[in-house]
Every structure is written in structure tokens, then in C-alpha cells.
Design goal:
CATH architecture of the largest domain: 3-Layer(aba) Sandwich
CATH topology of the largest domain: Rossmann fold
Largest sheet: 3 strands, parallel
CATH superfamily of the largest domain: HUPs
Structural class: mainly alpha
Helix content: 40-55%
Bound molecules: adenosine-5'-tetraphosphate
Order of helices and strands: EHEHHHEHHHHEHHEHHHHH
Distance between the termini: 18 Å
Strand order of the largest sheet: 1-2-3
Number of strands: 5
Strand content: 5-15%
Number of helices: 15
Number of domains: 2
Shape: globular
């Protein structure tokens, strides 16, 4: 199978509380890239279960959370006819390639992963093996489709570097077989992360030093994609800020993480640069800026939220999209695994 020249893969975990960071850091870019790339968007349910039940909701919630992410993809404008939308556990080749990558990646590489350290916290001995090996599964997700580009938020940069390390080691370790079997010099591509724009790391509304996240115990820390207009306005009103007005230049945001975060959110939602936002609001008080941001957030998110509600009321349609997407994804995945197993030398 020829290496595709412009294939996108990315995914979101069905762990509930889908938020503005997931939307601006990932989903908005997915929508934009489907115009220029062949796209595969996954609901990464095998990743979700690497954490305790309390994080992903346990068996009673997994199907609902999977439909929630799928509904968000559809509501934001991903076209399931053009792009593939599916959930990871329906294409078992993800787990199969992840195992092979467990044997390619080195312990030392994984020991350096900051996300594992953050998510495992102090109780590392009690973290699942799956959480430790998470980046290998992520590399498998991407390389199963030999994806060339992966749009993600800034927090995933290190995992993308690891994906490239795994691809390079595989290509190097099996170079003679790759050449003999007619795949040229490299079987897996050096996938490029796409981490662009003013909102690659949306921060908590309660603490500008912490990433906005699904698992933050404070609901006021995040705007979720299912929040109604009043809730969005309330969360922005209550967002932590400092007493000074917005600065006249971007440099003035350097030591003001909360202000910088709100300016970044405004820029991303309005399709402007942060400079343009400061050009318009520099010198103004938060009592002026916050209502403008709330109006903008409601204007941009209400249609997405409305469409999500419509899809969530129709699970048969959502499940049908995932089944169709899984069939199309599997067709590619099976072919990659056949070639990878040939390269490694498994008898078939
Ligand atoms: N705060 C964020 N700003 C920008 N992008 C973000 N992403 C996540 N948080 C932000 C991006 O969203 C995509 C999907 O993320 P995920 O569901 O796979 O997992 P995550 O990064 O662990 O998400 P959360 O919300 O932070 O969950 P918890 O609380 O479980 O840790 C990715 O592209 C990610 O970069």
C-alpha cells in the first residue's frame, strides 16, 4: 500500500466534560483540515480506560461519552462521508500495533513522558500499565494509517515526538526487510504535529497556570460544549483575572497568565490574532472585555451545542456513523498490519 501524502489522524478520549480546550485545540482544526487532507478522526476509547473508573465514568458511561465526542465532531462540521469518524475499540489493529510498538519503544523514552507523571501523580505504583504505555498506543493510532499530520493541542507535543522516535527506530531496525519488500527506505512516515494558532493550550478559568481539563474537579474551571448561554456567561464572569486593565501591547501579557488566556480564547473564537484583540481591547477593563468574550463564546458555541443535543437525541445515527467509519478505518488498518507483520517476519 503506497504511503499517503497528506493523511490526517487525530483523536479525543471519551472521558466526558468535552471542553473549550478540546474544541479550540483540536476539533476546530480537524474541521479546517478536512478541506485539504484525507482525514481520520477517532474516539480513543482504548485510551480512556487507562485511567480509573472515576475519570472516564466506568462501563455505564462509556457509550454515552463515546457518543458525546462523536456528536461534537459532527456538530462542529466534520463530514462523515468525506472523513472517517470511528471509535478505536472497533478496530482491534490499534491494540495489535501498540503491542509491537511496546517492543520497539524503550523504557527510558516512556519514563520521560510528562503526561504519565502528571496523570499518575504521587501514586505511580498504582497507575495502570496502560497509562504508562499510553504513548505507544497513540503512536500505533497514528502510524496504523501512516498519517502525515496530527492536529493536537500543545500538551500532546511530547507524545508526537515519541511517535517519530518509534517510527524512526522501526524503519531503522527493519531497514533491510523494508527495502526487500519494496517499501523503499522507510515504512512509517515522520508524522508532523500541527500545533498552531492562539489557543493551543487553553488554561483553566480558575488558575492560569493549569491546563483546562476534563478531570478538573471545579466545573467553573472549564466551559463545556454542552453549557448553555447563561452558564457560559457565568463562567466567564467568574473567571479569575487580575485588577489591572488589559495591556496596550502583547508584551504586557507576559506575567499575566489569566489575562493572556482570555485574550487567546477571544482570538481563537473570533479568528483573529492576539495582537488584533489587544489592538481592540488594550487599556480596557475586564468589566468591558469579559461581557464581549461571553457574547462571542455564546455566539460561536451555541450552534455547536444545539447540534450536539440533536445528535445525542438520535443515538442510532451516531452509532451508524461510527460503524461505517470503523469499516473504512479497518480496511486501511488490516492492510498496514499485513505489511508490518511481513516486515517483522511473522509466519502467516
Ligand atoms: N486545555 C487544552 N487546550 C488546548 N488543547 C487541549 N486539548 C486537551 N486539553 C486542551 C487537546 O484536545 C485533544 C483531546 O484531548 P484528550 O481527550 O485526548 O485528552 P487530554 O489532553 O488528556 O484532555 P483533558 O481534557 O486534559 O483531559 P484530562 O482531564 O483527562 O487530562 C488533544 O489534541 C489535546 O491536545
Amino acid at each position: 500500500m503506497a504511503q499517503p501524502s497528506n493523511r490526517v489522524f487525530s483523536g479525543i478520549q471519551p472521558t466526558g466534560n468535552l471542553h473549550l480546550g478540546n474544541y479550540l485545540g483540536a476539533i476546530v482544526k480537524f474541521v479546517a483540515m478536512q478541506e485539504s487532507h484525507e482525514c481520520i478522526f477517532c474516539v480513543v476509547d482504548l485510551h480512556a480506560i487507562t485511567q480509573p473508573f472515576a475519570v472516564w465514568g466506568g462501563p455505564e458511561k462509556l457509550a454515552d461519552h463515546t457518543r458525546e465526542v462523536t456528536a461534537a465532531y459532527l456538530a462542529a462540521g466534520i463530514d462523515p462521508k468525506k472523513s472517517i469518524i470511528f471509535n478505536q475499540s472497533q478496530v482491534i489493529e490499534h491494540a495489535e500495533l501498540a503491542w509491537l510498538f511496546n517492543c520497539v519503544a524503550r523504557m527510558g523514552w516512556l519514563n520521560r513522558m510528562t503526561q504519565f507523571k502528571e496523570k499518575a501523580g504521587k501514586d505511580r505504583e498504582n497507575a495502570s500499565v496502560g497509562l504508562f504505555a499510553y504513548p505507544n498506543l497513540m503512536a500505533a493510532d497514528i502510524l496504523l494509517y501512516r498519517a502525515t499530520h496530527v492536529p493536537v493541542g500543545d500538551d500532546q507535543k511530547q507524545h508526537l515526538e515519541l511517535t517519530r522516535d518509534i517510527a524512526a527506530k522501526f524503519n531503522n531496525d527493519f531497514a533491510p526487510q523494508i527495502a526487500t519488500l519494496g517499501h523503499g527506505e522507510a515504512y512509517f512516515p515522520m508524522t508532523e504535529p500541527v500545533i498552531e494558532g492562539p489557543a493551543t493550550r487553553v488554561m483553566s478559568l480558575r488558575d492560569g497556570a493549569k491546563k483546562m481539563s476534563k478531570s478538573d474537579p471545579s466545573d467553573l474551571s472549564r466551559i463545556t460544549l454542552t453549557d448553555d448561554a447563561d452558564t457560559i456567561a457565568k463562567k466567564i464572569r467568574k473567571a479569575k483575572t487580575d485588577p489591572a486593565p488589559l495591556p496596550e501591547t502583547l508584551d504586557g501579557l507576559a506575567e499575566r497568565p489569566e489575562a493572556a488566556n482570555l485574550v487567546g480564547i477571544y482570538a481563537a473564537l473570533s479568528g483573529q490574532t492576539r495582537e488584533q484583540v489587544i489592538g481592540e481591547f488594550g487599556g480596557k477593563e475586564f468589566s468591558t472585555f469579559k461581557p464581549a468574550l461571553a457574547d462571542l463564546a455564546v455566539e460561536k458555541l451555541a450552534p455547536v451545542s444545539g447540534e450536539m443535543t440533536r445528535y445525542l437525541a438520535d443515538p442510532a445515527t451516531v452509532d451508524g456513523v461510527l460503524r461505517d467509519g470503523s469499516d473504512r478505518a479497518r480496511a486501511i488498518a488490516v492492510e498496514t498490519m499485513r505489511e508490518v507483520k511481513d516486515i517483522i517476519g511473522f509466519l502467516s
